[in-house]
Design brief:
CATH superfamily of chain B: Thiamin diphosphate (ThDP)-binding fold, Pyr/PP domains
CATH architecture of chain B: 3-Layer(aba) Sandwich
Strand order of the largest sheet of chain A: 1-4
Number of domains of chain A: 1
Structural class of chain A: mainly beta
Number of helices of chain A: 2
Shape of chain B: globular
Helix content of chain A: 10-25%
Number of strands of chain B: 8
Number of helices of chain B: 11
CATH topology of chain A: Alpha-Beta Plaits
Strand content of chain A: 35-45%
Largest interface: A-B, 34 and 36 residues
Order of helices and strands of chain A: EHEEHE
Largest sheet of chain B: 7 strands, mixed
Radius of gyration of chain A: 12 Å
Number of domains of chain B: 1
Helix content of chain B: 25-40%
Distance between the termini of chain A: 7 Å
Oligomer: heterodimer
Radius of gyration of chain B: 18 Å
CATH topology of chain B: Rossmann fold
CATH class of chain A: Alpha Beta
CATH architecture of chain A: 2-Layer Sandwich
Structural class of chain B: alpha/beta
Distance between the termini of chain B: 50 Å
CATH class of chain B: Alpha Beta
């Protein structure tokens, strides 16, 4: 059984610490080239096809800005 | 399947806990405090005790914890959170009372309070965030600072002959009769966050069984004052903090 996931990052609250990126097993996330209104480069899905919806990024996110969705395919 | 087909309420697997408020936390990027706040909120939500939980804020970076977790709070003077929690628990024995303290607060100025609260076996939960430095005041040496570690007040590294030895307060309280559950956890990767959450849940459950004090140390990173990037600070913590502060249960009865 395979899963496909997607994450939504609250870009205004993200502080760009990169802990989610270090803990992503599938290399889905990366910091954006753009910054939010506080000047932080925020996390985003750079490779959305890789996401398996494991929620590791959301579990380690210190600011709880990541929401994870998952479907069976 | 396209990303916007997946992002639907019925496919939600992980979201922000309802017990957390929408206020943006003032912590530095990558601070462990945020993760610990989140797991406390998740435990409170899972146990459905939001209206029966009273927290005691420390003095330190986590002083504004009452802005972020939507429960009843008390604000203690520096180090006095266990004393205030004792009073709160004795006045409201059916509430879940916990303190949230840093290492400067608990292991330095509040040493007397924590040792006597644990020795009396108060039915409270103590959550102790150990990042081996004074965070809010600008990175001074704390009792838990490792030997050789550079801080604002030990610019050449902590030396035992001048500054004494790092204090293992968790091992100290494990010796006391009043404590029922003493554990050391961390929160730098998904596995450790899950373990820490289990420990916090167990500690909250212990308070209803009147077994004594539950003490949870969480070894944390203070990337700003360690002067490292968040991910590097977590790695430094694994390499340098864990050998001196080994993770695991010290006492469970």
């Amino acid at each position: 059984m395979a899963f496909k996931g997607a994450v939504v990052v609250d870009t205004e609250k993200c502080k760009g610490c990169g802990v989610c990126i270090a803990n992503c097993p599938t290399d889905t996330l990366a910091l954006a080239n753009k910054v939010n209104s506080k000047g932080y480069p925020y996390a985003m899905m750079a490779n959305p096809d890789n996401c398996i919806g494991c929620a590791n990024c959301a579990i380690v996110c210190p600011d709880s800005v990541i929401t994870v969705y998952k479907v069976k395919i | 399947m396209d990303t916007h087909d997946i992002i639907k309420p019925e496919n939600l697997v992980y979201g922000k806990s309802k017990v957390l408020t929408d206020t943006v936390m003032h912590y530095c990027p990558g601070c462990t405090h945020g993760v610990v706040h989140k797991i406390i909120a998740e435990v409170i939500e899972e146990m459905d005790i939001q209206d029966r939980t009273i927290g005691v804020c420390p003095v330190g970076c986590a002083v504004f914890a009452y802005k972020y977790i939507d429960i009843d709070w008390q604000q203690a003077a520096h180090g006095r959170a266990p004393a205030l929690a004792t009073a709160t628990k004795r006045l409201y024995p059916d509430k879940y009372v916990f303190t949230y303290q840093g290492d400067g607060d608990l292991a330095s100025i509040g040493t007397a309070e924590i040792i006597h609260a644990c020795n009396r076996g108060e039915n409270i939960v103590v959550i102790f965030i150990n990042n081996a430095i004074y965070g809010m005041t600008g990175g001074q040496m704390a009792p838990t600072t490792l030997l050789g570690m550079k801080t604002a007040t030990t610019p050449y590294g902590r030396k035992a002959e001048l500054n004494g030895y790092p204090l293992k307060i968790t091992e100290l309280v494990a010796q006391l009769e009043g404590t029922c559950y003493v554990t050391r956890q961390s929160a730098q990767n998904p596995a450790s966050v899950r373990k820490a959450k289990k420990a916090i849940r167990k500690a909250f459950e212990n308070t209803t069984q009147r077994k004594g004090t539950s003490f949870i140390e969480i070894v944390a990173a203070c990337n700003s004052n360690w002067k490292m990037a968040p991910v590097k600070a977590n790695k430094w913590m694994e390499e340098n903090m864990f050998p001196f502060y080994p993770l695991g249960d010290l006492k469970d009865r």
